[in-house]
Amino acid sequence: MIVCVLLPRFELVVAARRREGLMGEPVALTPEAGGVQVIGEASPAAEAFGVRAGMRLGEALARCPRLTVVPPDPIAVARTWECVLERLEGIGAAVEPARPGEACFDARGLRRLHGGHLDGVLAEARRALALGRNAGAGSPHVGAAPSRAGAGARLGVG
Length: 158
Description:
Order of helices and strands: EHEHHEHEEHEH
Largest sheet: 4 strands, antiparallel
Shape: elongated
CATH topology of the largest domain: Alpha-Beta Plaits
Number of helices: 6
Number of strands: 6
Radius of gyration: 17 Å
Strand content: 15-25%
CATH class of the largest domain: Alpha Beta
CATH architecture of the largest domain: 2-Layer Sandwich
């Protein structure tokens, strides 16, 4: 079985973590400097106003005038993601990261280490990710299926 891990809005959570309570408000990542003026990941409160990642900044502000934009922090994202990957590797997983916030690993060899069942592997992965959450990684989702595509589909990732 392949286990996939998703930390929703990972880059936004990391960028906003120094501002307490901000993720409960309409917030999105600012557009990249010099690039197309589209926002990055958006909070659930921003999405409630129809704001979505990839939307032009002007349209996002028109839909949600209270929208707060925060700059991305690629250095903090890389450091935090590395911490999350190390936690998963700590349970014995040979992690295949897709992008910050998404990763998969094969659970077959790990079952013997964690009670002999997939449930034991999933529990250990969740426990490891809960520790990563203390480092500002956000709330984890974990799913398993016979293929990477199937496990990712269970979590809503491509």
